[in-house]
Amino acid sequence: MRPMAQQSEGAVAGAPWSPGELEAQLAQSLLAIGEAADLDTLGVLRSDVLGPRSRLAGWRKGLGTIAPEQRRTAGAALNAARDELEAALSQRAETLAERQRAAKLAADRLDLTEVRLSQEWSTGHLHLVTQVREELEDVFVGMGYEIAEGPEVESDWNNFTALNVPPDHPARSNQDSFYLDLGDRESFLLRTQTSPVQIRLLERGVLPLYAVAPGRVYRRDTADARHLPVFHQIEGIVIDRGVTFGDLAGTIATFTEAIFGQGTKSRLRPAHFPFTEPSAEFEITCSICGGTGCRTCGGVGWIELGGAGMVHPAVLEHAGIDPEEWSGFAFGFGIDRLAMMRHEIEDIRSFIENDARFLAQF
Ligand code: DAH
Fold it and tell me: Is residue 60 in some structural domain?
């Protein structure tokens, strides 16, 4: 509602507008301003109603031709109309700016509830190989072992020579290595086994020693159902006074039962490893058929898990330990293979394919 005073502005004697014309123009402009949908439209409207080509501007120019005493009244009426339009324009601008801000905020809002409310929302979990590694760690910690770690980049000395595998030893060709361009030729490599951690632990010189060392190992193998160039092993080493082969057999029986369940039997078969003497391969009753014989175990009822033996005196001597005073055993096996046996996984490559349907099963 405009104040009464302005209702009569239309009728100014001698004004350049005919009676009612200013009033009508003002009412029409105010209506348009109130309906302007956005700031751009409002900007155009401003120049239409107040700009140099507006009717108001035309009338103001016409003031020059009328008598001075009428000019003042007519000019005041134009000024009042202009002020009223200005006020309406800035009020509308404020409203539209506020509306635009609110719309932008609404558009920019991130709906963080969307994922949580979805039916398919689920947390991830540790990879099966990591789960099995942690389980093994728990079993050995329960038996009083410490968890040790060694670097994946190893010296040839720790990975082979100190383990009684001198250069040119045929055992090196079973573990085709990734040598690194570091130091002398073929003096550093990506470790092919976790056994070098034995050397690191022995050189530390803290005895007696009960430790397991899980970790990644590397071999120049082409990936197939049973091989990957990067896989996982866990190494065990025990050095104490008066340790016997019977202690080794008992240790293997204890942890294989803990991992594969009670009733799982283990046995040791003669084998050869350069760093143990005597050496053995240890086998467990086939987890698929329970020992009666099936395709997985080739009908024999036993599956080979890893290698073991009494630590070779030469290995102790390399580390400066007196083999007359101390003795012990070592063992090592693949964590991926153990997980495959326990969960009847046929192809080791499934572990690295990152197929969520496979991983979610465990
Ligand atoms: N390092 C051997 C391999 O990778 C496994 C092994 C065998 C480890 C006998 C041992 C051991 O500690 O005593 O094939």
Answer: yes
